[in-house]
Amino acid sequence: MAAKSDADKEYMARAEKMGWKELSALWEQIKAGKAGPAEGWEDGKALEHLIVRAFLLSNLFAEYPFDVPPGGKAFEEIDGLVVMGCNTFLFECKDKPKVAIEVIAKLINQLLRRPGTTLGCVFTSGGFTSTALLLADFSVPHRILL
Known about the structure:
Layout: H1 6-16, H2 20-31, H3 45-57, E1 61-63, E2 66-68, E3 76-78, E4 80-84, E5 87-94, E6 98-99, H4 101-112, E7 118-124, E8 127-128, H5 130-138, E9 144-145
Parallel strand pairs: 5-7, 6-8, 7-9
Antiparallel strand pairs: 1-4, 2-3, 4-5
């Protein structure tokens, strides 16, 4: 993985100190819209780190957000990665009321550049637009979980 910025290291260190109780409290802050810059989280970072930490607490291999390619001029950011058994999932996190179709399209394109066994997930603090749901439902093969 690429070298992490100081901010990324700080977010990871904060997340690594959290257990289930702290993650539950953070989730409540996220849902209430109180996990932003005023609380020390850049927009969207709290949700990304909450999801990865939850997977790690579940004894799964997971990676915090990273850029591709590592160490160079990044052309994509992956919000996280988790391995469950023989399945690898890339995930996208959106802390917003509605996730638009562009997020699903972006994840489809990311998955097309990876082995066919790689799956995708979208985690949100809100919901999905009807067009985002349609694209996820009609994309073949079905590789995205919402």
